[in-house]
Each structure stands twice: as C-alpha cells, then as structure tokens.
C-alpha cells in the first residue's frame, strides 16, 4: 500500500491458478511481483536472494505440499514465507506451517491483509508516515477480516493486534487450550489478563516486554480493556462461523447443500482442468420416495433422507463430497485428492464399488418409521457423468449426470446409468457391474 515503504519491495508469487494470479493485480502497488508457475520453479527463484518475501498458493489436493514448503524455506533462508489458499484448503495449509511457512491468508486476496502478513516488523509499519495508531488500526482490520476464518488463524491475528497495539516484543492469546503467539516466543509474559465470553473465562491474553524499554502507567488498565475486546471478537467470530456453516449446510440431513456443491465444483473443476485428472458426479434419488411419505408420513420421509446421507458418507472415501441437492435427490462428488489418476485406471469403474456398497447397506438398513413389506427393499436410481470426458463446466456436468439419472428412472428404477451417447448401465437391478 502507498506509504508502507519508500523502497520498492519484491515479492515472489508461486501460483498456478490463473484466477488467483489475476486477483493479485493492483493489490500491492508498492511491490514488484514476480510469478513462478510451480514450487520447483519457485524454489529456484527464492534462492537468488532477490526477494523480500515469498507467497505460495495452495490448490485443492496440492501434491507434496510439505516437501515443497520445506524446500522453499531452505532456499529462502530467514525470509518471510507466506501461503494462501481457498477456505476448504485451510487444514492442509495450516499443516504446512510446521514445515517452514510463517503464516497464511485466505482467498480472495486482500491488499491490506497481505501487507500485514508480509511486513511484520514494527519499523516497516511506521515508515512513510504510518504511526503506531495507524498500525493498530491496520492490525484491527486484519482481525475483522479473519472473523470467519479458523479459530487458530483468528487467534494469531488477535495476538498480532495486542503486540502491535502495546508495542511489545511478544504477545500470546490462549483460548480453550489453543495458543497463538506473535513476536518473540521465548520471553516470559510481564502481564496477563483473563478473556471472558458469555460470562465465563475462556482463556487469557499475555503481554511480553516492551520493545521500547518500558510500558506506561496505564498498561494494566489497557490490557483489561483489550481482554474484553478480544472476548467480544471471539464471540462474534463464533457467530459468523455458525452463520456460514448454516448457509452451506442442509438443515435436515446435516450434509453440505446445493450452494456448497456449486462453489466446491467451480474451484475443483478449475484445478482439474489445469492439472489433469477427473471428477465424477453421481446424481441419485430414492425410488418411490413420495409413496413412502404418503404411506408413513413425513417423519418417515425425513428419516430416509437422513439415513441415506449417513450411509453414503460411511461408504465413500473421506475426501469425497456427499451433498443433498434438493428433495430426495443427492449429489456425490468423486475426485482424486492426490492429483492425476494412475495411468490406465477408469474413474467411473473405480466409484462403482462405492455405490454398490451404499446400495447394499441401504437395502439392509432398518428404518424405525418405515415398515416395508416382506422382501421389499429401499432402492435408488442414479446417473454418473465425468469431467472432462462428458462435460466442460459445472452446469453441464450436473445436467449430464441428471440426464443419466432420468434414463435410470425410465429403465425401471433401482439402477445406475453412465452418461454417454446411448447411456450404458453401470449397476442394474441385480447389482452387476457392467461399465461400457
């Protein structure tokens, strides 16, 4: 940002996502940004000694991230190494902090947040007319922007805020047993104050020694005020995370909803289009669902919806995404977390056993409010489509899978069809796997 430094700083940006790379344009007017298309290229550039900081993008299913970050740290020495990711990539990105990364930010990128993360020394914050009060406001702005992020990220920002605001060498925030520190980590705290939220103590904030040689007489009272502010911010963050989870969660089944599916697929397909690989989408619904509702009531229908979600979740891989699309229709995303598939393997044929396990568990499941006739079984009809073989966008992938589902319904239900010119049956009423 203008005024951060009178000397142009240089950033190495490691990013193979065109959308994220373009979003950087204009965000750091006082920085010269050099782009490396992958971590191997970035490690080579980082060792040149030409950069003030490194920012690496972490995509969905980023392969060998820990090795890449460790190599980047070795090449860059003590320089600032920052990562960025989409919200769903936060767990793996946070893990990379143990391998040499200093911090991370969440996409979409924000210029002020980037500067706060890239320039951590107080001298840099005060160059060009930035006073201590402005640095405090900027730190506060970073906290506000992170209210919806993970608890560990938010606590880190709160620790930064306290350290900058008090001009301390270090600060720590401890909440529910989780600790976040800012600045020197080997100093004993000189002041500590409890953080209270909802009338209960949830942790404490600790302040290290003054960076300028001593605190003012009001430092204890100020820390009490800051502890109260931190409690309110943590409570607000909890509410915001709850609201976001509700926006992306189906209230009946507890599964991600259609809104989440569309957002997830947009990012996933963009990564697969760039890196290679496949994504297979299963659309399925419950055969004769309306009759169950009419015969046994909506309580039985709700039980079937919840049961289908739990059973499919139990039978698929941990990283596959099971969603409720609407009504009695579900959508399941099968994708390869490690990148490209093993050469020669077929994506649909690899998901068929998962679907068959689900069908068998559904037919064997005993529902409390559904009394089926002897020999009758609860069944589904489904359709499978694969990106990029059958579709070139999120909308077309859903449409092609839905068309295959329609073919399954027209064929008499209790089967799964593959998308294709004529539509081949992947699983029939006898459960035979027959991939065309």
Task: Describe this protein's structure.
Helix content is 42%, strand content 21%. The protein has 436 residues and is an alpha/beta fold. The protein has three domains: 1-119, Response regulator (Rossmann fold), CATH 3.40.50.2300; 123-247, GAF domain (Beta-Lactamase, 2-Layer Sandwich), CATH 3.30.450; 258-427, Reverse transcriptase/Diguanylate cyclase domain (Alpha-Beta Plaits). Strand 1 (9-14), helix 1 and strand 2 form a beta-alpha-beta unit. Helix 11 (289-296) packs across helix 12 (298-315). Mean pLDDT is 83; it is low at 1-6, 121-132 and 431-436.
Write the layout of secondary structure elements.
Elements: E1 9-14, H1 18-23, E2 31-36, H2 39-46, E3 53-58, H3 65-76, E4 80-85, H4 90-95, E5 103-106, H5 111-118, H6 122-126, H7 132-145, H8 151-166, E6 170-175, E7 178-183, E8 191-197, E9 200-207, H9 219-247, H10 258-275, E10 279-286, H11 289-296, H12 298-315, E11 321-326, E12 329-335, H13 347-364, E13 380-387, H14 394-410, E14 416-418, E15 424-427
Parallel strand pairs: 1-2, 1-3, 3-4, 4-5, 13-14
Antiparallel strand pairs: 6-7, 6-9, 8-9, 10-12, 10-13, 11-12, 14-15
CATH fold type of the largest domain:
Alpha-Beta Plaits
Q: Report mean pLDDT, rounded to a whole number.
A: 83
Strand order of the largest sheet: 11-12-10-13-14-15
Helix content bin:
40-55%
> What ranges have pLDDT less than 50 throughout 5 or more consecutive residues?
1-6, 121-132, 431-436
- Label the structural class: alpha/beta
H-E string: EHEHEHEHEHHHHEEEEHHEHHEEHEHEE
| CA-based shape | globular
Q: Span between N and C termini?
A: 57 Å
In CATH, what is the class of the largest domain? Answer: Alpha Beta
The radius of gyration is: 26 Å
Q: Biggest β-sheet: count, sense, barrel?
A: 6 strands, mixed
Q: What would CATH call the architecture of the largest domain?
A: 2-Layer Sandwich
């Amino acid at each position: 940002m203008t005024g951060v430094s009178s000397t142009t700083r240089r950033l190495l940006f490691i990013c193979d996502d065109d959308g994220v790379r373009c979003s950087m344009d204009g965000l750091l007017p006082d920085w010269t940004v050099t782009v490396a298309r992958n971590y191997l290229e970035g490690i080579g550039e980082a060792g040149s000694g030409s950069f003030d900081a490194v920012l690496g993008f972490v995509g969905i299913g980023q392969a060998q991230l820990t090795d890449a970050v460790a190599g980047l740290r070795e090449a860059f020495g003590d320089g600032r190494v920052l990562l960025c990711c989409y919200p769903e990539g936060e767990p793996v990105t946070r893990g990379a902090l143990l391998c040499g990364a200093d911090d991370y930010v969440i996409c979409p990128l924000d210029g002020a947040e980037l500067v706060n993360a890239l320039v951590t020394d107080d001298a840099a914050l005060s160059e060009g007319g930035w006073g201590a009060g402005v640095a405090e406001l900027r730190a506060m702005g970073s906290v506000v922007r992170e209210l919806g992020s993970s608890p560990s990220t938010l606590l880190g920002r709160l620790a930064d805020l306290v350290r900058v605001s008090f001009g301390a060498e270090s600060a720590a925030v401890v909440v529910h047993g989780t600790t976040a520190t800012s600045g020197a980590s080997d100093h004993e705290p000189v002041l500590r104050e409890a953080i209270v939220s909802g009338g209960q103590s949830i942790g404490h904030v600790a302040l290290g020694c003054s960076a300028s040689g001593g605190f003012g007489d009001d430092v204890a009272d100020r820390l009490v005020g800051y502890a109260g502010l931190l409690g309110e911010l943590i409570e607000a963050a909890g509410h915001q995370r709850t609201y976001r989870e509700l926006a992306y969660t189906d209230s009946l089944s507890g599964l991600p909803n259609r809104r989440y599916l569309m957002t997830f697929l947009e990012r996933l397909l963009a990564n697969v289009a760039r890196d290679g690989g496949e994504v297979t989408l299963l659309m399925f619904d419950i055969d004769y669902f309306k009759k169950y509702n009419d015969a046994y009531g909506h309580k039985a229908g709700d039980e079937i919806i919840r049961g289908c979600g739990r059973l499919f979740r139990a039978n698929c891989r941990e990283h596959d995404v099971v969603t409720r699309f609407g009504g009695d229709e579900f959508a399941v995303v099968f994708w390869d977390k490690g990148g490209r598939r093993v050469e020669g393997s077929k994506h649909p044929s690899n998901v068929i056993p998962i679907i068959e396990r689900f069908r068998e568990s559904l037919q064997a499941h005993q529902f409390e409010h559904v009394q089926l006739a002897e020999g009758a079984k609860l069944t589904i009809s489904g359709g499978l489509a694969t990106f990029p073989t059958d579709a070139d966008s999120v909308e077309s992938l859903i449409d092609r899978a839905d068309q295959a589902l329609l073919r399954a319904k027209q064929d008499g239900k209790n089967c799964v069809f593959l998308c294709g010119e004529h539509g081949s049956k992947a699983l029939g009423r006898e459960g035979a796997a027959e991939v065309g």
